[in-house]
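Figure 3 (text version): structure tokens given as input.
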């Protein structure tokens, strides 16, 4: 049985979680075991992040605005490569240029990432700034998306 299609704001299907950067002046915050995702970890044509270029320590995580994001949670760039998205295959911390989009149950995580990939150019058109382009969380969450009502149908697609 086919489900109806919904047209909703991104903010109705997920909740954003922001990140941060531990002080680079403190060596004990860096080169740990926790992958720390930034825009440079989002590669063209890659839907997943297996590992990151930089890693932080537990104390670095605790000393910053970054949070540990569970594997499988869609991530999206909100500065520089605005709209580029991926799913981490392991728990990661994120910097302030990336948002994790924790789904509310109305949409599957993998389907959401594929949808973000589809809308990447449109999201990028909403970016503002002269030197570094970015999109505000408010603008991101007000972005309209269309998706099947039933998560089972999303999985089939």
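Below: residues designed for each position.
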């Amino acid at each position: 049985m086919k489900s109806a299609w919904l047209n909703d704001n991104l903010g109705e299907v997920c909740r954003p979680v922001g990140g941060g950067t531990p002080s680079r002046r403190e060596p004990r915050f860096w080169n740990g075991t926790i992958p720390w995702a930034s825009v440079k970890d989002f590669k063209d044509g890659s839907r997943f992040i297996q590992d990151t270029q930089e890693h932080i320590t537990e104390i670095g995580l605790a000393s910053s605005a970054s949070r540990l994001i569970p594997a499988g949670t869609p991530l999206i760039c909100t500065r520089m490569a605005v709209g580029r998205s991926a799913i981490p295959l392991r728990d990661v911390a994120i910097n302030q240029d990336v948002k994790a989009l924790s789904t509310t149950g109305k949409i599957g995580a993998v389907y959401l990432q594929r949808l973000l990939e589809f809308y990447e150019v449109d999201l990028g058109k909403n970016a503002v700034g002269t030197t570094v382009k970015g999109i505000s969380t408010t603008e991101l969450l007000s972005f309209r998306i269309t998706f099947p009502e039933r998560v089972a149908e999303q999985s089939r697609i």
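DSSP finds five helices and eleven strands in the chain.
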